[in-house]
Design brief:
CATH architecture of the largest domain: 3-Layer(aba) Sandwich
Number of strands: 15
Structural class: alpha/beta
Strand order of the largest sheet: 8-11-7-12
Distance between the termini: 47 Å
Largest sheet: 4 strands, mixed
Oligomer: single chain
Radius of gyration: 23 Å
C-alpha cells in the first residue's frame, strides 16, 4: 500500500487538456479548429473569458489518496518525454510520480503537433536519441507501428489482472501484427450530441436523455425531433458539426470506413452495406433541411453555440469540452463580478443515437495514453508512468473524489490580485450529466469502435474521406457516387500498408 499526495481536480483537468489537445490537426483528431473563426456579420459571437488575474494563487489544498492497485519500486528515474504540450503542468499524476514511492521525473522536449511531430520523432529514433515516452496519436496506429516507431510492451503488462480488466478488449483492438504497442490507460468520449435543455423544453420536445434511458434514442427519434424543431421556425437548425463528426453515425452500425485487425489485415468498408445505409440516412437528413449551413460561420465553437443554442438544437462535439466551455461562457464572463456559482448550466448531451437495425448500442470512442518509442533508453520508467496513470484512472477513491469535485466543487477564494477575497468560478456539473459522461466511457454499456481510417495519412482521412463527408453534409453529395470515385485512391493508400 502506498500513500500518495495529490491536488484535488483528479483527472478532470488532465482530461480537458487532452481533449483540447486532441483537436490539433495532423493525427490526433479530424476536427481542425485552427483558422476557423466563429461568427459572421449579423450573428452573435461569444465574449472572451480571458482574464490573467483569474490565474492568481488560491487557497486550494492538497489531499491524500490511497491505492493498492500497483506497487512501484521507487526507481522510475528520468523519463524523457517528447510532445507538443507539457504533461507535467497541472498533473496530479506527476506529483505522485515524483514521490519517493515512484522515484520518477519527466524531462519535457517540446515540438510542433501534426506531421512535424512524427518527423521529429523519426529523426530522433534514426539518430539513436529516442525519447522514452510520447502520447498516442491517431497516426500512431497503424501508421507509426507499421514504420517500426514504437517498442512492443507485451512483457511489461498483464491484461489478465484486475488493473487492466476493462481495457483488455481496447488494448487488443490496437494490437498490430500480433504485438501490443499501446496500452491506453483511459477511454475517452468521442463526439456526442450536445443540447440545451431549455431549448428542448421550450420547443415542447422530449428530453433526449429520457429517450436514451428508455431505450428509444434511435436514428428515427433523433431525426423526428429535429424535424419537429425545424418546423417551428425557419431559422432553426437541427444539427451542427464539422463534416468529420458524421463518422460517429456510421460507427453506430458497428462498422467503420476502415478496419485494421490485430493480425495486420486491413479492410476497406466503403462499400459495406452498413456504411452505405448510414450514409444514406445522413443524406436524408440533408434533404430534410436539418443540417447546419454555416449560418453562424464556418465553425461553431462551444462558446458560439452556447449563446445561439436556442437556434441550434444539437451540436456534434466532444461532450466534456463542449459542456465546460458552453457553461463557462454563460456563467463566467470576463471578470468574476457577475459569475453564477454552484449551479449547473442548462446544457447537456447524449450519445449519438442507436442504429435501429442493430442489436447492440455501438458507439465511436477515443482513448488516451502513452507509447514508448523505438530505441528508448528508459523503458522501465516510461512503463511506470503508464502504470501511474492507470492507477489513477481505476482507483475508486480518485473516481469518487472526481465526481464530488465535479458536482459539488469546494469553494476557492482568491488570495491576491484585484479579486482578493472573492470566490473563483468553478463549473458545477449536473450529476445526471456527469453520470452519463462516465457511462459513455464504460465498455459494459457500449460496444466501442474507433475508425482506423484516421491512422494512415492526411490524404486518406482529410482529402478523401473528409472531403467526401463535406460534400454530403453541405452540398447534397451522393455517397454511392462519391465513394465509388474515391475507392481506387483509398485502396492504393491501404495497399502501402498491406
Amino acid at each position: 500500500m502506498s500513500r500518495m499526495k495529490k491536488i484535488m481536480a483528479v483527472c478532470m483537468a488532465a482530461a480537458m487538456i487532452a481533449t483540447v489537445a486532441g483537436c490539433d490537426e495532423g493525427g490526433t483528431a479530424p476536427v481542425t479548429t485552427s483558422g476557423a473563426g466563429p461568427g459572421t456579420s449579423g450573428t452573435t459571437t461569444a465574449a472572451t473569458t480571458t482574464d490573467p488575474d483569474e490565474g492568481a494563487k488560491t487557497d486550494e489544498e492538497a489531499k491524500d489518496i490511497v491505492s493498492e492497485d500497483f506497487a512501484p519500486d521507487g526507481n522510475a528515474g528520468l523519463v524523457k518525454f517528447l510532445g507538443y504540450y507539457d504533461i507535467r503542468d497541472g498533473s496530479d499524476q506527476y506529483l505522485v510520480f515524483q514521490t519517493p514511492e515512484w522515484g520518477g521525473t519527466i524531462e519535457y522536449n517540446s515540438c510542433s503537433s501534426g506531421p512535424a511531430y512524427f518527423e521529429k520523432l523519426g529523426t530522433l529514433i534514426a539518430a539513436d536519441d529516442s525519447p522514452d515516452l510520447v502520447t498516442y496519436e491517431w497516426l500512431s496506429f497503424p501508421g507509426g507501428m507499421a514504420k517500426n516507431m514504437y517498442e512492443a510492451l507485451d512483457e511489461h503488462f498483464d491484461l489478465n489482472t484486475a488493473l487492466w480488466a476493462d481495457m483488455k478488449q481496447t488494448v487488443e483492438d490496437f494490437a498490430y501484427e500480433g504485438k501490443h504497442y499501446y496500452y491506453p490507460y483511459q477511454i475517452r468520449t468521442y463526439f456526442a450530441l450536445n443540447y440545451n435543455r431549455k431549448t428542448v423544453e421550450n420547443a415542447g420536445l422530449t428530453d433526449p436523455y429520457e429517450l436514451y434511458m428508455a431505450g428509444n434514442w434511435t436514428w428515427d427519434t433523433w431525426r423526428q425531433m429535429m424535424i419537429d424543431f425545424c418546423n417551428q421556425d425557419d431559422t432553426n437548425i437541427g444539427y451542427c458539426s464539422t463534416p468529420d463528426v458524421l463518422a460517429s453515425i456510421v460507427a453506430t452500425t458497428g462498422t467503420n470506413f476502415v478496419d485494421v485487425r490485430p493480425d495486420g489485415t486491413i479492410v476497406n468498408n466503403l462499400g459495406d452495406a452498413n456504411v452505405t445505409r448510414a450514409m444514406e440516412f445522413i443524406e436524408g437528413l440533408h434533404r430534410d433541411g436539418l443540417f447546419y449551413d454555416k449560418e453562424l460561420g464556418d465553425w461553431v465553437s462551444p462558446q458560439l453555440w452556447a449563446v445561439n443554442s436556442a437556434q441550434v438544437l444539437f451540436l456534434g462535439m466532444e461532450p466534456s469540452w463542449c459542456y465546460s466551455d458552453a457553461s463557462k461562457i454563460i456563467q463566467n464572463p470576463a471578470g468574476v463580478e457577475n459569475d453564477i456559482f454552484d449551479t449547473p448550466s442548462d446544457f447537456a448531451f447524449v450519445p449519438f443515437p442507436r442504429d435501429p437495425s442493430s442489436d447492440t448500442y455501438n458507439l465511436a470512442y477515443d482513448t488516451f495514453g502513452y507509447m514508448v518509442p523505438k530505441g528508448a533508453k528508459n523503458i522501465k520508467g516510461a512503463v511506470d508512468w503508464i502504470y501511474c496513470n492507470r492507477v489513477f484512472e481505476t482507483d475508486e477513491t480518485v473516481k469518487a473524489q472526481a465526481k464530488q469535485e465535479a458536482i459539488a466543487p469546494e469553494k476557492v477564494t482568491f488570495l491576491e490580485g484585484k479579486y482578493e477575497g472573492m470566490q473563483k468560478w468553478q463549473m458545477t456539473w449536473d450529476e445526471q450529466v456527469y453520470d452519463l459522461y462516465i457511462e459513455m466511457k464504460d465498455p459494459t454499456k457500449f460496444n466501442f469502435s474507433f475508425d482506423d481510417v484516421y491512422g494512415f495519412n492526411s490524404e486518406l482521412s482529410s482529402d478523401l474521406i473528409g472531403n467526401t463527408l463535406n460534400e454530403i453534409m453541405f452540398n447534397a453529395g451522393s455517397w454511392t457516387q462519391l465513394s465509388s470515385q474515391i475507392s481506387p485512391a483509398v485502396e492504393a493508400i491501404l495497399d502501402e500498408y498491406r
